Amino acid sequence: MWYQLDPTNAHVAYVLVGTISLVFSLLSFVLRQQFYIGEAIFGTIFGCIIGPHALDWFNPSKWTSNVDELTFELSRLILVIQLFATGAELPPRYMLDHARSLNLVLFGAMVYGWLILSLIVWAVFHSIGLKFSDSLLVGATFVATDPVLAAAIVGKSKFAQRIRADVRNLIQAESGANDGLAFPFVTLSINLIINRPDNVHAGTIIKDWILLGILYQCALGVVLGVTLGWVGRKSYVMARANQWMDNESSLVFYVALSLIITGLASVLGCDDLLASFAAGCTFSWKGQLDFDLQPTTDEDADFESLKFSSIMDLLLNTAYFVYFGSIIPWPQFTPYAWKLVVLGIAFLLLARIPALLMLQYLAPDIRNWKDALFIGHFGPRGVGSIFCCLLAKHLLETRSHNVEEHETLLNVLWPVTTFIVVISVLVHGFSICCFTVYNKTIKVHITRQPTPITLETQTIPEEGTSIARRRMSKLRVTQPAVDDPSFPKHAYVSRSKVTLMNHKGDVLNEFEVKDSSVDCSSKLVAFREGNQIVIEDGGREMKRYDLEDLS
């Protein structure tokens, strides 16, 4: 009688992914701007609930006999689109102008993290037969930080606005570059595992690794990415200048170029992740070209243009982390329970923070130990680690002449990598929320204490008069990395008004100071909170400006 009710796995998946995307969209402002929780942690928790180990509504193992291949290609798709967007959103010529800081953080943190985590993996798992060369491969899966999770820090949220532009850009550039640069660590580890038992000379292994892993895969990948990025930019600019492309088609360009890059790179056997990031950097080398959906009517003129990259990232990332939550191998964690806990703690404390604390004296963009600690902590592992893990399994199974010899490594590789990703999603996903709550608590405590005013005072004329003058506190506003004439240089604060002025002395904005006598429900007001100027509209925070020279 009810034969028409025959839902397939795909139908159920559509409903579930659509539901979680819809719920997150409805609550996105609250989750992102007030609780600072991104789609990754939200999707992962939902995926765990509907996955095979709970409700069993979303089970990828029922879709295909090769879940690893499906996960591998989904991870590749997410990464190439995200990496292109990451490179395209960097400031012009960033990779060249900040090469010293980026290279120190990039290679210093990667090599240190690889070696220290590999050593800890070997120390914890050698009792079950894991060799040190095997642990190098496991450690190689943790080398790459994740651009998807890092977007929660460098994205356009209120929290991101409180971070200096050079720190944000450094985190963004590192998360984009090191996904592709994880390839050499994986291939070197594979070469050691496969060739050393056959007594292949170490020089031969290193030579093959340099020629294939470094020069062919990475260097050719960069050349291919730069070439396609340059051609893509020229084509896009020419088409828009001659009005050959409408807004809708320009949105397709974003995804199409990413797919072309990964397709060609995969066909040639080079590093498609590095090629995608290089293409994105080249695309924005002479200035960013945003894939915007511009307002088309006068009624919409006051609304901010929609960033298509952000829309695509939200949709794809939510779907992917729902999928990831459903494939987490919870039963495989049980045999290694205490080992995984020890490794997880070591990962959070030792994987990056010590290296960044040492590099703070050499990297110009890291000004003090607070910057080093912040950058060191926010090195989340996610899609890139999953991709490297499945790549390592594929290379090991296809290149080894005796796969049975590596049974222990194959049994350990997947649960260890996924456990670290789960830890990273949870800890880094909630770090911003905890940091913000703590920071607000400290500020509230400080503002209740009477403090002497030690600021330089200036007098500026009231608007419309040349005689009347009033005393105001002159505060210097922290400037962005890129000169912006519309950005305020100084903030003048009196008892009744906050005035923002540019470097020429022109008044940019003027607000009433928020206090009990001002109706804050219907207009813009401003007030000073600690070392920041806060702008509110109808009781909702709209903007923050960091202040300098407050000592």
Could you give a quick summary of the protein structure above?
The chain has 20 helices and ten strands. The chain has helices spanning 9-26, 28-34, 39-50, 67-88, 94-97, 99-125, 132-140, 147-154, 158-161, 165-195, 202-241, 247-268, 272-283, 308-327, 330-333, 337-350, 353-359, 369-377, 383-399, 407-447, and strands spanning 292-293, 306-307, 457-461, 469-477, 490-493, 497-501, 507-513, 524-529, 532-537, 540-548.
Mind explaining what this structure looks like?
- InterPro entries: Cation/H_exchanger_TM, Na+/H+_antiporter_fungi, Na+/solute_symporter_sf.
- The chain is globular.
- The longest helix has 41 residues, at 407-447.
- The chain is built from 20 helices and ten strands.
- The protein has 551 residues and is an alpha+beta fold.
- Helix 17 (353-359) packs antiparallel against helix 18.
- Strands 4-5-6-7-8-9-10 form a seven-stranded mixed beta barrel. A two-stranded antiparallel sheet has the order 1-2.
- It has helices at residues 9-26, 28-34, 39-50, 67-88, 94-97, 99-125, 132-140, 147-154, 158-161, 165-195, 202-241, 247-268, 272-283, 308-327, 330-333, 337-350, 353-359, 369-377, 383-399, 407-447; strands spanning 292-293, 306-307, 457-461, 469-477, 490-493, 497-501, 507-513, 524-529, 532-537, 540-548.
- It has two domains: 9-290 and 307-443, Na+/H+ antiporter like fold (Up-down Bundle), CATH 1.20.1530.20; 457-548, no CATH class.
